[in-house]
Amino acid sequence: MFIVGGSASKALSAALAAEMGIKLAQIEIRRFPDGDAYVRILDDLKGEDVVLVQTTHPDEKLVELLLIQDALREMGVRRIITVVPYYGYARQDRPFQKGEAVSARAVARMIEMQSDAVVLVDVHSKLLIDYFSVPVIHVSSMYEIGNFLKREGIEMVIAPDKGAVERAKTAAEVVGCQWDHLEKIRIDGSNVRIAPKNLDVSGMKVAIVDDIISTGGTIATAAEQLKSQGAASVIAVCTHGLFSANAMERLRVCNAVYSCDTLESKRSAISVAPAISRDLTAFLSDVSE
Ligand code: R5P
Fold first, then answer.
1. Residue whose CA is closest, atom 2 of ligand 1?
2. 218 CA: nearest ligand 1 atom
């Protein structure tokens, strides 16, 4: 078995190879002058099982993933397990108005064409999983986030909305602290309102945990609310740190901001490699029985 990493997931694929004790294959990825991608696998992987790791954001990384799959098939690999650490286009998971594309489904159809199984991490909506006809391993990063929060001495974990409470609860249980959630009302694509809630956070080190930080509107508004209620410090932690537009500016209200390495940046302090390794190893031993 080999790990193959795309250019969006270089650090994570290396971490996963180390975690699983599997060799990381050599790959050449470059761009033609017009911007088209060129992909070549340098190791001979004929007959091998391959774990391909590539985040599909931005768009060009999705195309790169499809090209790597094509190169692997051309080489005659046995099975391709495609790990998509951050799945771009997951949020349009159904038509909200007549005539819209269901982008989560469209991308699933492309990825599964050359996948024997797919690994996804903290998907925003479970609907996405149903769009695949190959087996999907859905990995949670909350155990790794919980361990990180424990080292940070966090005393309370807060979900910014009800939909995120199960994730916050899992992380809080690892920390061994309390958890709760706020009530979020979305105003538009980058602004939300958080209804005041009677929470005793006075003097506490609080962490807000969410799946995605995009514009930072959700976390910034939640952090302001928690600080106004007396929290001593508020850190923000997410699985997928997109940090779009002026997110970091808005997030200055937080004492620190961290993400996992599903999207690699200087803030991706928490690796999901151990979580992927655990679940993938269990899946592989199930299918080999
Ligand atoms: C929404 O329900 C998600 O869980 C996140 O809260 C949301 O995607 C964050 O987006 P933003 O950072 O733009 O507020």
1. 163
2. 14
Strands 136-139 and 117-121 turn out to be parallel
Residue closest by Cα to atom 7 of ligand 1: 212
State in words which class domain 142-270 has: alpha beta
CA of 191 to the centre of ligand 1 (A): 10
- For the structural domain made of 2-140+272-288, what CATH number should be given? 3.40.50.2020
Domain locations in the chain?
A: 2-140+272-288, 142-270
Mean pLDDT within 5-20? 98
Answer whether residue 108 shows pLDDT above 70. yes
C-alpha 218 – ligand 1 centre gap (Å): 6
pLDDT in tens, 199-256: 899 999 999 999 999 999 999 999 999 999 999 999 999 999 999 999 999 999 999 9
Alpha helices in the chain (DSSP H): 10-20, 59-75, 103-112, 127-130, 142-151, 165-175, 217-228, 247-250, 273-288
Ligand 1 center to residue 38 CA distance, Å?
A: 34
Nearest residue (by CA) to ligand 1, atom 1, is 212
